[in-house]
Amino acid sequence: MHLRKRVLVTGGAGFLGSFLCERLLQEGCDVVCADNFYTGTKRNIIHLLENPYFEMIRHDITFPLYLEVDEIYNLACPASPVHYQNDPVQTTKVNVHGSINMLGLAKRLNARILQASTSEVYGDPTVHPQTENYWGNVNCVGIRSCYDEGKRCAETLFFDYHRQHQINIRVVRIFNTYGPRMHPNDGRVVSNFILQALDNRDITVFGDGGQTRSFCFVDDMIEGFIRMMAAPDDCTGPVNLGNPNEFSILELAEKVIALTGSTAKIVHQPLPEDDPLQRKPEITLAKEQLGWEPKIQLEEGLKHTIDYFKNIFEVSNRLKII
Ligand code: NAD
Ligand code: UDP
What we know:
Elements: E1 6-10, H1 15-26, E2 30-35, E3 54-58, E4 71-74, H2 81-84, H3 88-109, E5 112-118, H4 145-165, E6 169-174, E7 177-178, H5 189-198, E8 203-206, E9 212-214, E10 216-217, H6 218-230, E11 239-241, E12 246-248, H7 249-260, E13 266-269, H8 284-290, H9 298-315
Parallel strand pairs: 1-2, 1-4, 2-3, 4-5, 5-6, 6-11, 7-10, 8-13
Antiparallel strand pairs: 9-12
Helix pairs in contact: 1-6, 3-4, 5-7, 5-9, 7-9
This protein binds nicotinamide-adenine-dinucleotide and uridine-5'-diphosphate (UDP).
Nicotinamide-adenine-dinucleotide is lined by residues 10-11, 13-17, 34-40, 60-62, 75-79, 94, 98, 116, 118, 174, 176-177, 183.
């Protein structure tokens, strides 16, 4: 008999994965982190390595993985456009082959499995805010398609394994999440703006900056994952998790400048292809089914994130070793 719940976190050395591993250890779980370090780093989990209930496996989930666990959180996949577009074929593979491998593992073990899906399944949405029953507006041949269609196919696989093999699945659709341990070079807007502001470099707003996003702080997101995994068996999702407070990218730039006291100036650069115009989660389902809603608002979350980047900025002698 196992006294501790054994939990596998794929992508556990990444931004969200490392916080999830930490939280699961705090809850008394025996945690296995599987990661190929494509975008994750040892630095994110180095503080966990001495914990006897934490195990790290260097593994690419597009290949089968054999181990024994009770629950699986499937987070492995590069999340930022810069990274997932760097090797788009691998991005589709991690979502399709990777999901099949993890669902196969869940099937053999009769384990509960949670999929980290994304608001990108809604594409450039024509419904606002986005509800879970909206089918989305996705280009299947664009530069974001490897990620968007990959994640959509992963959701299909999760629901087919559930219907065909009675796998206990949970699908959460994550909206833009930020916080400490974001990869400094991954090009995501929050980390880009903070690093630019701290270095008094130009703040690169793509397009006119009128496009919107809703930013969720990492601690709130991890709480959502834990609640979703613990929810009753019929709570498969998909469930939106995100902060419904919506900001234009220009507003975000102004907030970052104000909070850092930077002298940086805003400059405009071309809008990337297929960049969604607006994004805001409808989270009624998460409130009703999980009793979950975000608690940390943008300004507070930005302050924590700025402190983190300030620290690594100094330690790394102005980013030379990041
Ligand atoms: P991240 O890039 O920091 O983490 C992803 C992790 O997966 C990294 O550690 C990476 O090395 C690992 N990985 C990639 N390919 C792998 C493979 N083939 N085998 C094993 N490990 C592999 O990104 P994140 O922000 O922590 O995102 C985690 C998950 O949440 C992803 O699935 C992402 O799509 C999803 N998500 C994140 C956001 C967000 O705003 N952060 C939004 C929507 C969805
Ligand atoms: N963006 C920007 N400047 C940057 C990075 C991103 O204006 O330096 C914009 C980007 O075009 C998008 C939004 O910020 O409209 C969010 O981009 P991110 O890559 O963080 O995530 P997305 O939500 O697009 O996946």
